[in-house]
Amino acid sequence: MSVSRTVSRSCRKSHRPVRRIPGSRLPRALSLLLLLTASAVAGPASPADAAPSYGARAVVVAASKEGAPYAHGATGPARFDCSGLTLYSFRQAGRALPRTAEQQYEHTDHIPRDQRVPGDLVFFPDGSTMGHVGIYAGDDKIWHAPRPGTRVRLERIWSGNVRYGRAS
C-alpha cells in the first residue's frame, strides 16, 4: 500500500458532510462570515453608526440555531420563540437583553432603516406593541423564530411596517 493511499483513506474517514446553501458551493456559516466581513468593509460612513461587535456575533449565534423548533416562551438552546432567539443570541455574544419583543424594543436605541447593519434588531408592530422581533442579517433578511409549527430560519423582511433598534 502506498503512502498516498494511506493518506487518502484516513482523509475519507474523517470527512464529514458540510451543509450547503441551495445553489451555492459555500457552507452557510462561511457565507455568513463573508457577508459580515463585506458589511464591515463597506459598512456605515462613520464608526459611531456601526453596530457593536456583539451584534455581528449575535448574527452568527442565531445562524447556528437554524432549524431549531419554535416553542412559545422558549429561550434556547434547543427551542426558541422570537424574542427568546434574540435574547439567547445576544447573551451568547456578551450582551443582555430583556425577555419580550416589546421590552427589547424599549431597551434599544431606535435607528432609521438606512442606518441598519447586521446585528441590529428588527421589530414588527402589532397594534400598540411589538409583536415580533428578529436579528438583521443584511440584504433585507432576518434570522428569526417565526411562529408555532416553524423553525428558526433566515427570511426576507416581508413588511414595510418595521422598526429598527440597536442594543447598546
Automatic annotation (TrEMBL):
SUPFAM superfamilies: Cysteine proteinases. InterPro entries: NLP_P60_dom (IPR000064), Papain-like_cys_pep_sf (IPR038765), PG_Endopeptidase_C40 (IPR051794). Its EC number is 3.4.-.-. It is an enzyme of class 3 (hydrolase). Residues 1-42 form the signal peptide. One of its GO terms (biological process) is proteolysis. GO terms for molecular function: cysteine-type peptidase activity. Residues 10-19 have a biased composition (Basic residues). This is Putative endopeptidase p60. The gene is iap2.
